[in-house]
Design a protein that fits this description.
The complex is a heterodimer. By secondary structure, chain A is mostly beta strands. Chain A has strands spanning about 5, 10-15, 20-25, 30-40, 40-50, 55, 65-70, 75-80, 90-95, 105, 110-114. By secondary structure, chain B is mainly beta. In chain B, the strands form two sheets. In chain B, strands 2, 4, 5, 9, 10 and 11 form a six-stranded mixed sheet that branches. In chain B, strands 1-3-8-7-6 form a five-stranded antiparallel sheet, with no helix packed on it. The termini of chain B are far apart. The chains are: A mainly beta, B mainly beta.
């Protein structure tokens, strides 16, 4: 299995620009999670989907952040407009439908906003 | 609110045993997980406890006491490659939403 795939792996952009992060979950996994990791705030859950439906987006920092999952094999996290404080590593993770199953993380996207 | 407490840093010698504790206070609880993360890498799953007791997987064991809202990760026969950050994480009542602790940085010395 290819594992969770994220793109791009690194992104450097300027403040005010739109940023789109992409994720392909493991085939057959019904749940998808977006996390953000920083030194100050640690690993935070931003949003998660079950069967392509957003279930809990309480971790999304503000309206500048949005996430979509148009089908079972693709999700995006968009930041518009981006700000320097959005600089972080963004991880996507997927899990089968059973709550006891393991969450598998992608390699992450390191975002730097100048 | 929801919070997880774990030590920020632990140092141990190669070949030794180390225990990383985690206490949690959450509105709901489905299980306690442990993840390992090397510098520059992604978190990788180590173990999961839904019920009280000890779970063993090779050199790693994890323990849970739900009445005490407490768990620990035990690493035996430490190796240099075990130097990494270790996170405890609580799954909420539904079993999907996961809250992570701040992580414990483990340094293994020769």
């Amino acid at each position: 299995d290819a594992g969770v795939i994220q793109s791009p792996r690194h992104e450097v952009t300027e403040m005010g620009q739109e940023v789109t992060l992409r994720c392909k979950p493991i085939s057959g996994h019904n749940s998808l999670f977006w996390y953000r990791q920083t030194m100050m705030r640690g690993l935070e859950l931003l949003i998660y989907f079950n069967n392509n439906v957003p279930i809990d987006d309480s971790g999304m920092p503000e309206d500048r952040f949005s996430a979509k999952m148009p089908n079972a094999s693709f999700s995006t996290l968009k930041i518009q407009p981006s700000e320097p404080r959005d600089s972080a590593v963004y991880f996507c993770a997927s899990q089968r439908g059973d709550p006891t199953d393991t969450q598998y993380f992608g390699p992450g996207t390191r975002l730097t906003v100048l | 609110g929801q919070s997880l407490e774990q030590p920020s840093e632990v140092t141990a010698v190669e070949g030794a045993i180390v225990q990383i504790n985690c206490t949690y206070q959450t509105s709901g609880f489905y299980g306690l997980s442990w993840y390992q993360q090397h510098d520059g890498g992604a978190p990788t799953f180590l173990s999961y406890n839904a019920l009280d007791g000890l779970e063993e997987t090779g050199r790693f064991s994890s323990f849970l006491s739900r009445s005490d809202s407490y768990g620990y990760l035990l690493l035996q026969e430490l190796q240099m490659k075990d130097s990494a950050s270790y996170f405890c994480a609580v799954r909420d009542t539904g079993g999907f939403k996961t809250i992570f602790g701040a992580g414990t940085r483990l340094f293994v010395k020769a």
